[in-house]
Automatic annotation (TrEMBL):
Organism: Hymenobacter bucti
Keywords attached to this entry: Cell membrane, Membrane, Transmembrane, Transmembrane helix, Transport
Membrane-topology descriptor: Multi-pass membrane protein
Location within or outside the cell: Cell membrane
Transmembrane segments: 26-48, 54-75, 87-106, 126-146, 246-271, 283-302, 314-341, 395-418
SUPFAM superfamilies recorded: MFS general substrate transporter
The protein, known as: MFS transporter
Record-linked InterPro entries: MFS_trans_sf, TM_effector
Xref: PANTHER family: ENTEROBACTIN EXPORTER ENTS, INTEGRAL MEMBRANE EFFLUX PROTEIN-RELATED
């Protein structure tokens, strides 16, 4: 069928949701995503209140990125060598135990354990800062293994590749919807107490674990070609991506946009010192990008991107950078929230195009290794971007650092548009070549 021939099959926006195991997967992912978003809000607010230092916020991202990057390539090899469910369930179990530990560390009863009742509560909390980073470090290892396994497990739940674009969109929509609820819930729970918020996070991660366990396991896809040594297998994901200009361009564009353009890590500083709000304002600001993302993702579920998808992705990332610059310069809470909403709208387009490309162009038996490289490009760039934002804020000031990041994002778009002609000319309706 040529790209100009009308598709005789009506588009079913609920096709993936009609599959029972995919519904379980989406439910588990929604619970887990809400829980981790709550956890992210509470950890960042707790550490900021303890240190009042934007660099300390950046270190949160670094503490998670270092272990995640370190294990990612090997985790990708494991995801293509072991049934994916056997990796997902233990990884989620470790993350659940990390949530339990965060709850325990925040509990007032810890005073008697750490200080024999002699320390004031504020002094007690100060002793908890470094253990928080340690828990984040351990969670980074678990996420490093979970990411490739979860990415490659999802397509195995589908009866055919025709459902894949719809499944990718629903997966993105669900994650973004969870990201809307998570920060808002986290901000509201902080009014009760830090330990109560961690308790909710712990319960939700436990429920997510039960749903992941309920999904039937799947055999590994058959391996094509010659069997590789361990080192060859680990590096094969990198070789695949660098041999495909389209996938490489999409990943690079998203990576640099996230690396330079993210202001989320510094939101506690903006919420309190520039916009003069409290934890509830912080929660709303954290939720604003996700609101934009989920609305755009829902729109794309019913009106999939086809014509000019590559150009739209480039314009979306440029818009993300411009909205980031404007946010940095805003001193009005509602304008700032709207600009963050726009960053989410633009980011959703980029995410869905990138994920669809990676799923479509990657053989099933290599998806774990390619996803591992994808997680280094994108997932870890969130954390490294948080560290970059915190470091730049320390060196040149918080507002100038976010302005610089947004401008760099637009520069990356210009270079990618010039160099990557395949992405610029991409038509999603044309299918895999």
């Amino acid at each position: 069928m040529s790209p100009t021939t009308p598709d005789p099959t009506p588009h079913d926006p609920y096709a993936a949701l009609r599959i029972p195991d995919f519904r379980r997967y989406i439910t588990a992912r929604a619970l887990f995503s809400v829980a981790t978003q709550i956890q992210g809000v509470v950890v960042s607010w707790q550490i900021f209140k303890l240190t009042n230092d934007p660099l300390a916020l950046g270190l949160i991202g670094l503490a998670e990125a270092i272990p995640s990057i370190t294990v990612s390539l090997y985790a990708g090899h494991v995801a293509d060598s072991v049934r994916r469910k056997r990796i997902v369930v233990p990884a989620v179990m470790v993350l659940f135990l990390c949530a339990v530990t965060l709850w325990w560390l925040a509990h007032p009863a810890l005073a008697g354990v750490l200080a024999g009742g002699r320390l004031h509560l504020d002094a007690l909390h100060a002793t908890v800062v470094w253990p928080l980073y340690l828990v984040i470090f351990v969670s980074g290892i678990a996420r490093g293994f979970m990411g490739p396994a979860l990415f490659s497990f999802m397509p195995q739940l589908l009866p055919n590749r025709g459902v894949l674009p719809n499944a990718v969109t629903w997966s993105s929509t669900t994650w973004q919807a969870s990201a809307v609820l998570g920060p808002a819930i986290g901000g509201l729970l902080l009014h009760r107490s830090v330990e109560f918020a961690y308790g909710v996070d712990m319960v939700m991660e436990g429920l997510a674990l039960l749903f992941f366990i309920s999904i039937a396991s799947r055999e590994l896809p058959p391996i094509e070609g010659e069997r590789l040594t361990l080192s060859e297998s680990i590096l094969s994901g990198i070789k695949f991506i660098f041999s495909n200009q389209l996938v490489l361009a999409a990943l690079s564009l998203d990576m640099f946009a996230v690396l330079f353009g993210g202001a989320v890590a510094l939101l506690p500083f903006f919420a309190e010192n520039i916009l003069h709000g409290g934890p509830d304002a912080f929660g709303y600001l954290r939720a604003a990008p996700a609101v934009g993302s989920v609305l755009m993702a829902v729109f794309l579920t019913f009106s999939p991107l086809k014509k000019g998808a590559g150009r739209k992705m480039l314009w979306a990332v440029a818009g993300f950078g411009a909205a980031t610059v404007a946010f940095a310069l805003s001193t009005n809470f509602y304008l700032s929230m709207f600009l963050l909403f726009l960053t989410g709208v633009f980011d959703s387009v980029s995410v869905i195009v990138r994920q669809t490309l990676v799923h479509t162009y990657t053989p099933e038996y290599m998806k774990g290794r390619v996803s591992a490289v994808n997680s280094i490009f994108i997932g870890s760039s969130n954390e490294i971007g948080a560290f970059e934002s915190g470091t730049a804020a320390k060196l040149i000031g918080t507002v100038p650092s976010v302005v610089f990041g947004g401008l760099m994002t637009m520069l990356v778009v210009a270079i990618t548009s010039w160099k990557a002609d395949q992405l610029r000319k991409l038509e999603m309706g044309a299918g895999k070549k």
